[in-house]
Amino acid sequence: MAIYKYFSRLFSKTKTIQKNIQHSKAGNFIQLKPKLYKESIHINKNMVLAGDLHDETIIEGLIIIPKNVSVTLQNLTISPTAQMYIEGEAVLQNCHFKGGKNDIHVTVDGGKLNAYHCTFGNAKDMALSIINNSKAIFENCNFDHNGKVQILAESSQVYIEKCEFSYAKHALCIKNGSFVQSRNVHFHHHTSAQVVVEDSRFIDHESVIEHGEGMGIHVYHEGDASIQSTVLQYNTQTQICVQRGLLTARYCSIQQGRDAGISITQNAEAQIFHCEIAQNKKSNIVVTKDSKMNIEFCKIHAGENIGIQLSDTSIVNIFETRINGNRSSQVSIANKSICSMKKVEVTGGYHVGICIEDNGNCSIVECSITHNANSAITLFKSELSIFKSILTQNIGNGILAMSDSKVEVDMCKFYENEMPHIACKSNVEIIIIQSELSNGKSLFIVNECELTAIDCQFFDSLNVQIEICDLSNARFENCQIYNGKSYGVKVLRNSSLYLFDSQIFNHELSQMVVNDSSIILKNSELFDGNRNALYIQNHSEVFVSDCFISKHAQHQLWIDFESTVELKSVQITDGALSDIFAQNQSSVFISDSVIRNNKSRFNVQAVNFSKIEISKTVVENIYGDVYYSENHSFIKQLDT
Prior knowledge:
Blueprint (H helix, E strand, L loop, with lengths): L16 H7 L4 E4 L4 E3 L2 E2 L4 E4 L7 E3 L2 E3 L4 E5 L2 E2 L5 E3 L2 E5 L2 E2 L6 E6 L2 E5 L2 E3 L4 E6 L3 E5 L2 E3 L4 E6 L2 E5 L2 E3 L3 E6 L3 E5 L2 E3 L6 E4 L2 E5 L2 E3 L6 E4 L3 E5 L2 E3 L6 E4 L2 E5 L2 E3 L6 E4 L3 E5 L2 E3 L6 E3 L4 E5 L2 E3 L6 E3 L4 E5 L2 E3 L6 E4 L3 E5 L2 E3 L6 E4 L3 E5 L2 E3 L6 E4 L2 E5 L2 E3 L6 E4 L3 E5 L2 E3 L6 E4 L3 E5 L2 E3 L4 E4 L3 E5 L2 E3 L6 E4 L3 E5 L2 E5 L4 E4 L3 E5 L2 E5 L4 E4 L2 E5 L2 E5 L4 E4 L3 E5 L2 E5 L4 E3 L4 E5 L2 E3 L6 E4 L3 E5 L2 E3 L7 E4 L3 E5 ...
Parallel strand pairs: 1-4, 2-5, 3-6, 4-7, 5-8, 6-9, 7-10, 8-11, 9-12, 10-13, 11-14, 12-15, 13-16, 14-17, 15-18, 16-19, 17-20, 18-21, 19-22, 20-23, 21-24, 22-25, 23-26, 24-27, 25-28, 26-29, 27-30, 28-31, 29-32, 30-33, 31-34, 32-35, 33-36, 34-37, 35-38, 36-39, 37-40, 38-41, 39-42, 40-43, ...
């Protein structure tokens, strides 16, 4: 490049920059003396215009760079009375735009701008307007106190690196199909959303967006934001809000917000990977109004409200994520929303672990839900499927299902929950398969519920292991119920139970209690109880077929208060007292069975208007007397 210098000779003849430009050749270098130049400049040829390195060179006026012109400005302080207008190409090096006389410092209209080590301050409206397929690069620049927005990009491309934006309404407004990429940028102290993305694409790496009075990033109207290793913190409103747009976040930190951490709404979509979202005053994550989110390998914790909140037919998938220490429900699913979770840890919450309500649906696979201050999972008028998961050490229930809910539990473990591991109330349908429930009350089923348990184990309870109440129905197949410190199974208040191919043993109180209800036992075993095998009372009906009952410390079958029992192909042996004791207008019918007892004088007893009929049955003991009846009762052996 030719060097064109005007220090003394030429400046003594031509006083203005514009005249020097007119007399220069394309590609010349013009070195300006350090002083104030009050003039407007129209640069119509390629050149370099440089100020002094040591003393301030100030241009106060309009600067125009037309199409097909490339200009470099160096070491200048520009205080434009009207905006600098670029249709060609401009390079700004160590230039400083300041002053509040104009609305906009620089407009790039279909041109190109590269700015390095520049400052833009105190514009009334905005620092830069980059429009109409323009391209701009900013490196090591500072933007502050520029009215409504620091940079407006419309239908243009902008790259920003190692810059600082502060004290305006917005840092970036990205609109109308623009593309903006930023790296290692500091955005702070803006009065509204710091970065606004509308119908455009925004990519950020390693920036910090903090201390805003509005949102950190606002994406809407088909906007698309992709952030990586970005930090958002201390923003007054939602740190990231996406409405009808897309968000992708990787390795980001979104913490200490005074509202929600991330809000995805109005058909928005988000992908979140390896992010930490924590300590936000409201919910850490909100997904609502038909939106979708995928969360993988994240940490979501210590929110002042809900950890992850879904509502209004939204869908969320969560994989290998830790959710802990949130003040309200750790995960809330409502209003026909769907959530799937795999290899997720939900722990240490101050309330419910997972709350599902109003026709929500949740699928849980290989998860751990522990140490929550209320129930691990609560659902109301909703559906839950849980597989290969652990629910333990929660202050409430493992699962609390209510009001027309449906639950499927498969290959799960429940233990050491302070309330029943699974509680169902009011028209709940539940199926439990190949699961273990121990060290706590296993099941509490009440108010017209339907329970099916297959290949399950219920053991080591300090309370009643299983309780079926109030018009509820239960079916157990190939289950084991054992080692309880209280009752094994209680069926109460007009409920019913079917027990097939199962074992009940080693309970401190009666193995089964039936009160004003009905049960069917087939191909099952009841043994080693410290009280009764079956305690049947209050108009109950019991049918026992192909079962083995043995070794109970009190009457093996106690039948009371107008109850009816039918025994068919049953073996009853080794009781410490009578095998069958019926009283108070009860009835027992026995056929094709064996009743053998060498510890009690009477195998079968009937008292107080009760009756027992026996056919095709062996009844024996070493004492010889096998029957005892009194007070208008009778025992009749039909085949003698």
